[in-house]
Specification:
7-stranded mixed β-sheet; alpha/beta; 953 residues
Length: 953
């Protein structure tokens, strides 16, 4: 059914009427039971005692769901309800308007049935006046005072717990493909506003990211809400498990409800994991999301039904839904769409999914630094309930975390920091991630369940931790059963938990066990909807790891799930658990797995190309995720050493991989090959002490990579700001993590390139930008004009120079679509270039610029991630190599186009294909034998390249 088909002025689209039908039904039942002021519970109580034969056919729970809007009457239930309403004495004595309301409810029912059957909706002329009048009244009274109060309370609470900082991610750039090693003969020209400067720098956009800007959560939401319409897709919030993605979106939702005091909420918060529970799978995605939003609660808030289509969608957990199936529909939703996803899962999704994301709106939740960890432990109230630490004790715990490499790597996550705090109060910190969860579960259980003297039933099972673990493992296994393509369940019917308890502990204590799990906080039970799930996905994955070890064994679980991105956390935990049982056996299995796949790939490369993942890289990721020290696995470590020594490309690939184990990165930081050390220096997950050591490297390019790394310690960046090499200082000036006082000092540098870098850095203080707006250098002023963080008064002052004004507006992602369309016809080539490379430029404007007479303009269109696929395919045949190279830089380029360009005669075109994370595995394998070293280096740094294709290269 067409999405824009309307039925009446008050009922515009399919599915909307029933957002108000529950309230209408409740009002009619108040009259029918003879008490127009009856509360919700009172209606149910009166209803249960009516003795009406029609109502005896309807269960109380069914009616409860109708009144809450969770479902709607259908079939015989509807007829029974209608007979009751029509024949009600109190209603018969009411004026005719009440009968009109029954007719309105009947009309709304028929609309819903038509939508369910996929048929045409009733004619708008059939809608009773009461339907329109009631909807208007519901809109007026929908913004209740209690909702605003709850939203205010929730917002105040969530403000204390959600991660306040997010980093904007941009596609990382490659430099200089023309020489065997970087040299001063051809310096990169980073930060130029002109496209000619960009061409000279020979940078290639690939499917990896670096942080370019840090914003507080509320500031980010304000920016996204005020950004121009016509965006290329949905905005993305990435984060690690327990990093706070859900809490962040809930905080934004509460803020929006709190602010919208005079109108119905225009914001919908939806857990995407619940999509699988919507029975009407033929309905448009928009309707299914609204149905979930109506019944969903956030921080204790049950928002009134949304009468229209929301202007803001907060969609939680793309990794918990069928991303490939819904990505296009998410991007097509009206209004602003913000979607959260696990970082590791997002990196493994296909280019077909990624192309729907607004390329200018990739944001990642920043990990808590040591100082923030102290504040979190000592000052912030949070849920699950944990004690507030005395500040001195919090500082001591954070110090101990800093000396434990396994815990240090994960302590930036609020959830895992809470767990570390739970287990680290009285004992040594855990040696692995799995040990952390095992001890954490036990602490939850012991601290929160009643003692033996309490007399409470739950006390009887407190000591039965073995049965507890078997029940949780059984539950996790039942939640992940089904088709491989089906998302894993995060919530299941309460009956599933009961079945797991009966299977592992017997039927006698089902109620006792349920109450114990509820009290412990390990499980989240929702009695209202009869659903149960783990308190956090990380808990579920730990139980799943134990389940796999018990039912499948380590070998079969690894063989079955190694290529499934959803399983990465559980497999990493499985390694940690199994290593405690028999580290030698795990060591042998990991070695056999890596060796056998390398041999299988040599004989049949198409097998791995079809899977699209590298077994060797996957094992490195799993070991890094497990937190187990590599010296526990000497045989696999020896194999890795031989594997790396056999190929400089393998070492470069692992040094570039942000999920390589910290111990591997530390080893590669001492590599004889400068390219490898440079890759470690630019790796966002390299340990702080490794970056500090590489900041003293003799090679300028290594120090420059450290200077540009957003995770480099502040004291290291401050030291590199005094480096003798201007290009190192410039990298510091461009780094969004550079301290404000360092940027203020660099803004006075005699080198214009330095001042340009500071002027373009969104982290530069407002007073620094105001000063640079009066700089003698035109390019410096232009960088300030293009900086989204520049104060409004500064931009107003810079508007005096017509040419600079047009150029700055053309390249500014905040420019309105109609302005960009006008500037696309500007006589100045560099103004059109700015429009062509702006990701906010409408698709039809980009298509027009793809035929521009200037090759540099066409190249900018080819490079733009917002350019439609058909336009990219056309540009891939352009006579100018700079245009073809632009296509190969584009992460949204179709796979067939990239495969064709991998055979291009121009080295720089092949080099860019090798750098593109969207290039098919077999195409990358072909480029591993390229004659040009620059192509091979670019290939090795691409995280999508199979390590097995690089061996002995």
């Amino acid at each position: 059914m067409p999405k824009d088909q309307s039925v009446s002025p008050g009922v515009e689209k399919p599915g909307r009427p029933f957002s108000e039908a529950g309230d209408l039904l409740r009002s009619l039942l108040r009259i029918a039971v003879g008490d127009e002021g009856a509360s919700y519970d009172r209606i149910l109580e009166r209803f249960a005692g009516t003795g009406s034969r029609p109502l005896q056919e309807i269960s109380k729970r069914t009616l409860e769901r109708w009144l809450s809007g969770a479902s709607r009457p259908r079939g015989r239930n509807w007829e029974a309800l209608r007979r009751f309403l029509v024949g009600s004495g109190p209603i018969e004595r009411q004026p005719g308007g009440v009968k009109e309301a029954i007719a309105a409810l009947d009309f709304l029912y028929r609309v819903g049935e038509a939508r369910k059957a996929g048929k045409l909706l009733p004619s708008p002329d059939e809608a009773p006046e009461m339907a329109r009048a009631y909807l208007e009244e519901a809109q007026r009274r929908g913004r209740r005072a209690d909702l605003v109060e709850k939203a205010t309370t929730a917002a105040a609470y969530l403000e204390r717990v959600f991660p306040r900082r997010l980093g904007r991610l941009k596609e990382r750039q490659r430099e200089r493909p023309g020489t065997d090693h970087p040299s001063d003969e051809r310096q990169p020209s980073r930060g130029h506003r002109t496209h000619e400067g960009l061409r000279e720098s020979a940078r290639a956009a690939v499917d990896r990211y670096e942080t370019t800007e840090i914003l507080a959560g509320d500031a980010l939401l304000d920016r996204l809400l005020t950004s121009p319409t016509g965006r290329a897709g949905f905005a993305l919030v990435l984060g690690e498990p327990g990093g706070g993605k859900t809490t962040l979106l809930q905080a934004w939702y509460a803020r929006r409800l709190q602010a919208a005091t005079n109108s119905e909420p225009d914001t919908a918060y939806v857990r995407l994991s619940k999509l699988a529970r919507i029975s009407d799978s033929q309905a448009p995605l928009e309707d299914r999301l609204i149905e979930i939003a109506r019944g969903d609660g956030v921080a204790g808030i049950k928002a009134p039904p949304v009468p229209g289509r929301p202007a803001l969608w907060l969609l939680d957990g793309l990794d918990e839904a069928a991303a490939a199936a819904i990505a296009a529909d998410l991007a097509a939703l009206p209004g602003l769409v913000i979607v959260s996803c696990r970082t590791s899962v997002w990196e493994g999704l296909s280019a077909d999914v990624k192309r729907h994301v607004d390329p200018s709106a990739h944001w990642e939740i920043q990990q808590l630094g040591p100082d923030e960890q102290v504040v979190y432990l000592a000052e912030l109230d949070r849920r699950p309930i944990h004690r507030l630490w005395p500040r001195a004790e919090a500082e001591e715990l954070v110090r101990r975390i800093g000396t434990n490499i396994q815990m240090r790597e994960i302590a930036g996550s609020p959830l895992l920091l809470d767990l570390i705090g739970e287990v680290g109060q009285e004992i040594e910190l855990p040696a692995s991630r799995a040990e952390l969860f095992e001890q954490g579960f036990q602490r939850y259980w012991n601290r929160r369940l009643p003692g033996p003297d309490s007399g409470k039933p739950a006390a009887r099972v407190k000591a039965l931790s073995g049965q507890r673990d078997r029940i949780l493992q059984d539950l996790a296994g039942r939640m992940t059963e089904g088709e491989p393509s089906k998302p894993w369940d995060l919530q299941v019917r309460l009956k599933v938990l009961e079945e797991a308890i009966e299977a592992q502990a017997g039927v006698g204590d089902v109620v006792t066990w349920i109450e114990a799990f509820r009290a412990s906080g390990i499980l989240s039970l929702n009695d209202e909807i009869g659903r149960v799930g783990f308190a956090h996905l990380a808990f579920q994955e730990y139980a799943l790891a134990r389940h796999w070890l018990e039912t499948l064994g380590f070998t079969e679980a690894l063989d079955r799930y190694w290529a499934d991105l959803r399983a990465e956390e559980a497999l990493g935990l499985m390694i940690g658990i199994a290593a405690e049982w028999d580290a030698a056996a795990v060591d042998q299995r990991l070695t056999d797995f890596s060796v056998s796949w390398l041999e299988r790939h040599r004989k049949d490369p198409e097998g791995l190309w079809g899977i699209g993942r590298s077994p060797g890289r996957a094992v490195c990721h799993l070991l890094g995720r497990s937190g187990v020290q590599l010296n526990r696995f000497p045989e696999w470590s020896d194999w890795l050493s031989r594997f790396m020594s056999g190929s400089a490309q393998v070492r470069l690939a692992l040094a570039s991989d942000e999920r390589s184990p910290a111990e591997v990165l530390a080893r590669l930081a001492g590599d004889v090959d400068m390219w490898v050390r440079r890759a470690v220096a630019g790796n966002a997950t390299s340990p702080a002490e490794v970056l500090a050591r590489l900041a003293n490297d003799d090679e300028m390019w290594v120090r420059r990579a450290v200077a540009g790394n957003a995770t480099s310690p502040a004291e290291v960046l401050a030291r590199l700001a005094n480096d003798d090499e201007m290009w190192v200082r410039r990298a510091v000036a461009e780094n969004g993590a550079t301290p404000a006082e360092v940027l203020a000092r660099l803004a006075n540098d005699d080198e214009m390139e330095m001042r340009i870098a500071v002027a373009g850095n969104s982290a530069s203080p407002a007073e620094v930008l105001a000063r640079l707006a009066g700089d003698d250098g035109q390019r410096v002023r232009r960088a300030v004009a293009g900086n989204a963080s520049s104060p409004a008064e500064v931009l107003a002052r810079l508007a005096g120079d017509d040419e600079d004004e047009r150029g700055a507006v053309a390249g500014n992602a905040a420019s309105p679509a109609e302005v960009l369309a006008r500037l696309a016809g500007d006589d100045e080539r560099w103004v059109r270039l700015g429009v062509a490379e702006n990701t906010a430029t409408p698709a039809e404007v980009l298509a027009r610029l793809a035929s521009d007479s200037e090759p540099s303009v066409r190249a900018a269109v080819a490079e733009n991630a917002a350019t439609p696929a058909d336009v990219l395919a056309r540009l891939a045949g352009d006579d100018e190599k700079v245009v073809r190279r632009g296509v190969t830089w584009n992460a949204a380029a179709p796979a067939k186009v990239l495969a064709r360009l991998a055979g291009d005669n121009e080295m720089e075109v092949r080099w860019a294909v090798a750098a593109n994370g969207a290039s098919p595995a077999e195409v990358l394998a072909r480029l591993a034998g390229d004659d040009e070293k620059a192509v091979r280096v670019s290939l090795a740094e691409n995280a999508a390249t199979l390590l097995e294709d690089l061996y002995h290269r």
